[in-house]
From TrEMBL:
One MF annotation (Gene Ontology) recorded for this entry: D-ribulokinase activity
Protein name (Swiss-Prot/TrEMBL): D-ribulose kinase
Domain Carbohydrate kinase FGGY C-terminal: 240-411
Pfam families according to UniProt: FGGY_C, FGGY_N
InterPro entries with a match to the protein in the record: ATPase_NBD (IPR043129), FGGY_C (IPR018485), FGGY_N (IPR018484)
CC cofactor: a divalent metal cation
Entry keyword Hydrolase: no
Lineage, uppermost ranks: Bacteria, Bacillati, Cyanobacteriota, Cyanophyceae, Oscillatoriophycideae
Species for this entry: Crocosphaera subtropica (strain ATCC 51142 / BH68) (Cyanothece sp. (strain ATCC 51142))
One of the record's GO cellular component terms: cytosol
Family, similarity comment: Belongs to the FGGY kinase family.
Keywords: ATP-binding, Kinase, Nucleotide-binding, Transferase
Length: 417
């Protein structure tokens, strides 16, 4: 039996097919074309179908379940046939939060939805600009792409729906949300990876999927990337060393500190908590090319730490682990020796990472016992040793980091649902 995970990212889509042993059988990619940029939904639909066509037909015939992840808070408004009524609103497209003013007494203070990019603010913006018609459906990108395969409208998952205000603890929409005038367009929310329906007849005919192939609810891109690491026990964490430093920790307890950008997603009976710092690879990139990073890192004597104490940022302002919008970058003194300078930067980012996990633990999260690493900095072995020193836990490179792989795991685990 085979399982297909599809990741819709910012520049294109990727599909990964795994077998019962969670080994990758085939991977396919498709970049978004420059055509249809004024009709994003069509671009996604075309990309989805082209991606499915690229999977060898013999593989397609064996696929038992499919799941899709999209970018969090990328949303659509559709009519009763699933046709988008409006251009989708992308994950990073901020809407003016003054829209919330008229609902100030209804929406709880310090709620996650009170951000200019939350799904709820986008939905209220559509309401405010009178775009919501009777019988409309509000969906996230992953929900809509799933609909194209199974044909059922109005279904979402509780990862995508968190920033819509769904109560993931009690598995319902909170009463305050139900009193908002957008109540009628809210999707039904299911656990991620729940089988919704078998693939619809047209898709079976067109792509030769087996008739019993099931389409499951999806997740968001960053949770899919976490799942890809294989982390599944409380205390397991994934640090992403990309342009920014992103921490995710699986915890028995749910923790929130919205002003610091800390919140928790539900993962079965556990909580996936974390935060994002503005430090990270973008600062390294500012000073060093990738090849230089690799060569100079190999020359670091990790047994001889520097006394340099930086807070590497490209511009003032930090949210996590220190919540200070005016925090000034600290990058002085710069030693003449480049290896020493790089070592100072890597040590300082490692200290911020350790401080981040300490902060999550201080708020009540399960202590870190095992750390996986993803992103461009993951391959740096000396950095892993430096980080292990500050973090005092084993640091491993994630064997898989692709979101599509994590989503394929979700499709495979749907067999148990
Ligand atoms: P993103 O997807 O967030 O843009 P990536 O995961 O692709 O980022 O990682 C890119 C970052 O990785 C760059 O900022 C770069 O400085 C950093 N990077 C690349 N090679 C190394 C290395 N050998 N050691 C440390 N960092 C590295």
């Amino acid at each position: 039996m085979l399982f297909l995970g599809i990741d819709f990212g910012t520049s294109g889509a990727r599909g990964i097919i795994i077998n019962d042993n969670e080994e990758i059988i085939t991977q396919v990619n498709h970049s978004f074309s420059n055509q249809n940029t004024n009709n994003l939904a069509k671009q996604w639909k075309d990309t989805l179908y082209l991606l499915l066509k690229e999977i060898p037909i013999d593989v397609r015939k064996e696929i038992k379940a499919i799941s899709i992840n999209g970018t969090s808070s990328t949303v659509l408004l559709c009519d009763s046939k699933g046709e988008p009524i409006e251009q989708p609103i992308l994950y990073n497209e901020a809407k003016n939060v003054t829209i919330l003013d008229s609902f100030q007494t209804i929406i709880p203070e310090h709620h996650l939805v009170k951000s200019s990019t939350s799904s709820l603010v986008k939905l209220l913006w559509w309401y405010h600009t009178k775009k919501i018609k009777p019988l409309a459906y509000f969906l996230h990108q992953a929900d809509w792409l799933g609909f194209l395969l199974h044909g059922k409208l109005g279904i979402s998952d509780y990862h995508n729906a968190l920033k819509l205000g769904y109560d993931v603890e009690n598995l319902c929409y909170p009463d305050w949300l139900k009193t908002l005038p957008i109540n009628s367009v809210l999707p039904q929310v299911l656990p991620p990876g729940t089988p919704v329906e078998t693939v619809n007849h047209d898709i079976v005919q067109r792509f030769n999927f087996p008739k019993h192939c099931r389409v499951c609810t999806g997740t968001t891109d960053s949770i899919a990337a976490f799942l890809a690491s294989g982390a599944k026990h409380p205390g397991e964490a994934v640090t992403s060393l990309g342009s920014t430093l992103v921490l995710k920790l699986l915890s028995n307890t749910r923790i929130e500190d919205i002003s610091s950008g800390i919140y928790s997603h539900r993962l079965g009976n556990l909580w996936l908590t974390g935060g994002a710092s503005n430090t990270g690879g973008a600062v390294l990139k500012h000073f060093f090319r990738d090849e230089a990073l690799e060569q100079l890192s190999q020359q670091i004597n990790i047994n001889q730490p520097t006394t340099l104490d930086y807070y590497p940022l490209l511009k003032p302002g930090e949210r996590f682990p220190i919540n200070n919008p005016n925090l000034v970058p600290k990058l002085e003194p710069i030693p003449e020796n480049k290896v020493e300078f790089l070592q100072g930067l890597l040590e300082s980012i490692a200290k911020i990472e350790a401080l981040g996990y300490e902060k999550l633990q201080a708020l009540g999260a399960t202590p870190v016992t095992q750390l996986y690493t993803a992103g461009g900095g993951a391959k740096n072995e000396n950095w892993a040793k430096i980080r292990q020193h500050y973090l005092q836990v084993p640091v491993k490179i994630s064997s898989q980091t692709e979101a599509a792989y994590g989503t394929a795991l979700l499709a495979k685990r749907s067999q148990n649902n």
